[in-house]
Write the structure tokens for this entry.
Amino acid sequence: MNNRKFYSYDRNNYYYGKLLTSRDFSMEQGYMNDKRRLGNLMLHGSGIVSGLKVVAADETALILQAGFAIDGGGREIVVPETEVVKLSTIDGVQNLHSDIAYLAISYMEKPDEKVYAVMQEEGQESESAYNHVKEGYKLSLIDQDSCSAVPAKVDSWLTETVLYEDEDCRITNKVLRVLPKDRNLTVYTTIEKKRQTQELISVKYVVNIDGLSEQKFLVELDHVKLDRYEKKTIKTELALKDEVRFLKTFYLKVQNLEVRKDKSRYVTEPVTPVMINCLEENLLTAIVNDSFKTAMDTVIENDYDTIIYLAKLHVIRMGDRVLLSRLEGVPFGQYVSSAAQLKLFEDLKEYCPSVNNTQQAIVKESAGHIVTAAEPAVTDNAFVTGTFDLSLGAVGDTGKVCYSEEIMHGLGEGPVYVEAAVEILNRDNGEVKEEIIFGDAELFGNTEQTERQLQFSCGVKLLPDRGTFIVAVKPKTKVVRTSVRIRWYACRVQDSGKNIYKTKENQGMLVIAPDTLTTAPRGIVQIVPRFVNIPEQACRYEVLDAAGGRIDNNGIYTAPTAEGVYEVKVSCIGDPGIFAHAYIIVSANPRG
């Protein structure tokens, strides 16, 4: 059981009258053990299966919980009962010379039950032998300088880049090195504190796709305060444009990297761009295909490790004594997931349905930077409202347009109606009253409140494919305030068919781009449908408004004489359930 041989196998062949010796029985046991070890490793992997949690009993002892694990040789490690272990009794404690050590467990077997041997093998000097082999485990302490991190399987799919490092902290980012067709990329930025200081750390940089100047995403962590060995991570999703996915490879570049500690600014070296391979398959298919094509001997060689790390210990050495300061459990994430866990997840899904987007916190996103904002007031599944403060800078200048960050309305992707206005709070006899005016405030008379309302123009830009919107405010006169409070309302409108927002589901759909056209009265425009995930086919065109003009079978629309906004429905004749809508703005003064 201590060998690394999994295959090939020799199996006993029994026949009538065969003389069996200890060699035959040893071969029988070895055959069964090697088969099981290979199955354990290839089907389940190595790591902790259950239990084996480590907690501090006091500064001199640990409590090891009962549990089960499989090591890199496919061997089972069983701790039958919870026990208290003194640090001074663990193998390797005498070799520690730093303030960090790793507690490891490994498979161990030893001979047991010594008995008298009636016959001795050739070369055996003793007249005794061991009747059994006892399987167990061994604990050991390994100094940080002698320990290398155990790579997780996920690491082979990720690229980690060190952005900045000194004696105080380490700043890295991590990204998937492939872009599956069904996923976006997410950049994980981590600040890790290496020693105890009171400094606040800030990091800011731009992720840019090389060759596409408009694809830039801001990543920023502000005034992070950490204790020694603590980490803080922020994830930034990169909403990539379609043209990126047509490339075979592209490079992610880190630009304008800035690290600050309190008031000190540090200049950093240029960071090597990360190459990303675009896949024509989804992530699950890529993982399965990669697993199937990897040679078995390579898997065994890479995964073979007889040690499983249970805890990272921060210790204080006082002469020959070692005292425990604190510990972190399973530092390299060595766990084994089981089919039973997946089955339990499936059984529990019906008791805990997915959280509706309207029940989640609003998220602000600015050029890829995501931060938590105020939670919307949810009234039902199709309507939400919320407020936020929009900065006007040091002072609001006449004609200067100020934009909010990208705000998630919480109703998901697709067509949503959003309205926003400047919220005015007035005091009347000590009582605070809220006043919100939509549209033309002059209709309500020339009062002090409407005068304040008239100071601003407010507009909303909806981003249906992201489930977000942006608010723009322009002061009509010079104002002294540095920010205004915006009240917004959003409601779900009827979905106009299987449109662009279904692309993530790979459904067949019909898209009209642009879906809003402008023409003069009696003008003529053509509506051109695009087919996604389905072959081109004949379509039916119909104007939904009784006096909204006419359209022929080729999508040629003739506007009526009356101005207005008219709706046209385009559906596939072969599958009327696949349809889309277009909107025609008929105006005597059309805008380009």
Remarks:
- Residues 355-381, 496-504 have pLDDT under 50 and may be disordered.
- The longest helix spans residues 22-44.
